[in-house]
Structure formats: structure tokens, C-alpha cells
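User: Can you write out an input/output pair for a complex, sequences first and structure second?

Assistant: Here is one pair. Inputs:
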Amino acid sequence: MLRLERISLSLGGQRLLDDVSLHCPRGTLTALIGPNGAGKSTLLGVMAGDHAPTHGRVQLAGRPLGDYGIRELAGQRAVMPQDSVLRFAYRVVDVVAMGRAMRDLPPDEDDTCITQAMQDMEIASLATRNAQTLSGGEQARTTFARVRVQATPLLLLDEPTAALDLRHQERLLRLAAEWAAQGHCVVAVMHDLNLAAAHADRLVLLDRGQVVAQGRPWDVLDASRLERVYRQPVCVLPHPQRGCPIVVTTHQEAP
Amino acid sequence: MISTLRRHRRALPERPRSSRIAPLYGALALALLAGLALSATSGVVDLDARSLLAAIGSPFTVPDDDRVAHAVLWELRLPRALLALLVGASLAMAGAAMQGLFGNPLADPGIVGVSSGASLGAIAIIVLDIDTLGAWTRPTGAFVSGFATTWLIYLLARPSQAEGDNARLLLIGIAINAVAGALTGYLTYLASVEQLESLMFWSMGSLASVDWTPVWIVAPLALAGIVALRHQAVPLDLLALGERQARHAGVDITRLRLALMALTALLTAAAVAFTGTIGFVGLVVPHLVRTLIGPGHRHLLPLSALGGGLLLMLADLGARSLDPPNEIPIGILTASLGGPFFLWLVARQQRGSR
């Protein structure tokens, strides 16, 4: 679905991404992880078509990303930003519907799809609220519902769970994983390694613009590798029920 | 099937607030008709209902017995009321679109400086005695300099990801108004006595001595602008998410920006070319409509046009009937209504942001 070949990106004399290659097939949820400033959001920006890479190629559904028109691209990928802006007092339902406004989908499905997305994120009761007065978490849920109704084969999420409580973190990622399982492709920037390990099929660990490791959670989340990249000692344990790895920080100072 | 879907961008679904939309259209349309009738019947020359009806019934033939009524109605009052309607509709619609473009409810052609930029072009045409396009010369000059001004303002006050750019936009408005004012002053200094007289009304805005010529010129410009702007309603809604998110959702920001700037400049130029700068209509009307039906542009734009037309027609009626037989310049009237409103808006916004 999405293929990046030897991507480099320099902005203002700074090399933000260095020789990044990765492939996100249909049916998978990929999580981009790494310390602050590793280039996760920048990489997501390249995938979204916001920045054209300095070197390398990005292919979306077999075509170069740069060949897509703006509206055509909006039919292929949706982007959930880290923080959302809203400049006028639209209602929550209006904001969710904006995700679909420029899509060429059968109009009679709009209402069901919008209602479903709002129920999924438990914001149906806020439907007629002024979206400017929402809390951070409610805003994030509204934004996720908006990008969901855009109904694109590629879904890019930039720290989707940062503002959410435990229940909605789980809910959002389960919905994202479900979307992926239906034959779509989801890529999410994540800070919480445990959430990433629990829900993603594949992890991509970035450090200073380079891919340090990629693969299944147990393969990527290696204690000594994480200690090196994050400069913080950690323990990696199996989850008592899910069997996926969990990462906890430990006391002793790094040498 | 696909191709028909492609052409129709879907509007956002309508729920509760929509119950207010249809009555508002109806009320505004009725009020416009009533205002038009009132404008036609009231004035310095008293016309009785019978001669008025006779005049309305015969637009093209002048009855021998009632020449005055016919002339007053068809040569003075109607073109004037219609021009007020067109100018008000253009200004209010330009205001609504500009607020969407800048993502700022305080944007208005007058405050931001587009009106003074457009007037500068019209004044230059007058003072420099340019007459290449006949009666169209002045609107063309107003459009060109109005468009250039909008572009400049947008480059300087481009809405960023962060909110709260109000101060910046208003400061730029002050500077643009000052520069345009200085250039206008210089042109005024160059002007002959004869030209000075026709320049006078720019500073205050006036609908006095209007005949059919400006109506025929402004009408197609205003209508074209209004129809074209109405097509940008959905992208304008998405623009409220910020430029980046709007692009992700499928809006071609560069094209939208260009279209909006050209259309607001066109509407402002149409409004300014013959009547001078009339302020605050573009600020007050969209704001009121938004509080009634919400910010969705599909109805905000046409309802603002109706409301702006009504407001300016009534203001013109007031301007010529408050102190008969003299006329208060209409720009002074709208400014004395709109100025305090603007202050209230700024004060309220400040409270809201804390």
C-alpha cells in the first residue's frame, strides 16, 4: 500500500530523515516509535504528502505520491493531526462531517457513516455541542471520527492517544486496528510503547532520522536497544494476558 | 454516476439549527420587499399611492399627468434603493468570505484595508483622468488595487496554526489604511477643484445622485461574485480546520485562496466604485447571521447577502429621511452603528479567550 524507498529529508540545512526505507502493506497497523526529535512526525508528514523528500521515492498504491492531485489524495489517505484547530463555532457533528465533504462517496451513506463514527468514539451525545468548547480528549475523539468518515485506504495518525484517557486510548486503537484488519493500512506515531506493542502489527523504531529497527513488537522492543536509543534503563516483560511485550522504566542510572 | 457525484460536493448534514434557516430566508426576503417599497414611497417629494401605482405600472411610458411621480420613482428612488441593496449585499458577502479566509471573525473589507485599497484605485482613476474603459474604468481600477491590497494583507497576516492572530490582522489593517490614506491624501492634493468635489464622497460614502448607470455596472459584478462565492461554501467550511487539515481533507488551498481573494476584491470593488467606502456592513451582518444559524457557509453567505442588502437599504433610507431635505452621508451612519458594535465584539472576544 505504502512504500518508502531510501527517503532522506533536509529542511533548513538540517537532515531530519536519513535513508528511511519501509513498507506498510494493507491489513497492517504500523506504529512509529522513538524518542523526542527522532523524526516520527516528519516521517508521517512525508507519508501524508506534506513534505516532498529530498531523496528517495514514496509510492502509494503503486503510484508516486507526488502524482496525486490534492482531492484525489484525500480519497486515498486521511491524516489525524497532533493538535486540531477550529476557527468558528461549528457543532461537533459538522466537524465530523467535514471529513466527508470533499469525498466522492455515495451521499446516502453519509449519515450512517457519520453517526457510526460518533458512536464509536462516544461523542454522539456531544453532536450539537460547539466544538470549540470541547476538552482536549473530546477534541481528539472528534478529530478521529472526522478522519474515520473520510474512509480512506491509508490512515495516518499523529499521536492519536496523547490526550485520551485509558478507555478511549484502547477504543481508538482497537478501531484503528479493526480498520487495518479490513484490508486498509494504518500508520500511527506513538509515544506509549505499551499501547504500540499491544495494538500494532509492526513497530518502526526511529532515532535521529534513521530506522534503528523494524518488525514485530517482540523483535523491536529489545531492552538493550531501547536503553541505547532512549538513554534510559528499561525492563521488557510479557503482558500477563495479551502476551505482548510491556516496557517499564527502571531505577539505575545509565552509565 | 461517478461524474455526477464528482460535480456535487456534498453539504454538511443539517440538524437542529436548520429549523431557523428557512424562516430567516423568508423574513429577510419579506423585509427586503418592504424596505424597497418604503424606499420608493418616502422622501422629500410626497407621492400619493395612486400616482405611485400608476408610475410602477408604466416603467417605459411617461404619463402626461404625472410626470413628477414617474421621474422620482424611476429616476431617483428605485436606482438608489437597488444600488444600496447591491452594495450592501456585496459588502456583507465579502466580509463573510474574508472572515472565512482569514479564520478571523474581525476581518472586514473596511477594517482590514481592502476598501481603502480599492478606493485608492478608484480615486487614482478620477484624479489621473483615465477613461480608457468608459464607465467601467473606475470599477476596474478599484478591482485591481483591491486585489493587490488583499494579496498584500494575506501575505502579511496569513493565518498560522496558532490561534489568536486577531491583533496581527488588525495592526496590518491599521497600517494598510494609513498607507492608503496617505496616498489618497497625496492624490487629493494633486486634484483639481472639480475633481475634489467628486472625491469628497469617498471619504464618507454616499448614494446621492445615483442613476441607472452604476446599477447596471454593479449588478452583474455583484451577482457574479455572489454566485461564484456560494460555490466555495464547502471548502470555506473546511478551511476552519486550518490550512493543513483542509488540504488533507481535499481542499486545494492555493486555488481556494486565490479564488477567495479575487472574489472579495471583486465584491469590494463593485461596492466601492460608485459609492465610496461604506464601513462595517461586512463585519456586522455575517456576525449576526452566524449567531442565528451557525458558521456553515452554505447558508451564511446567501443570508449575509440578503441581510447586508437590507441593512444598507434601510441605512440609506435613514440617511435621506433623518434630516430632510439634507442627506447624512451613509458611511457616517453605518460607521456610527458599526463602530460600537466592533468595540463590543473585540471586548467580548477578549473575555472569551481568557
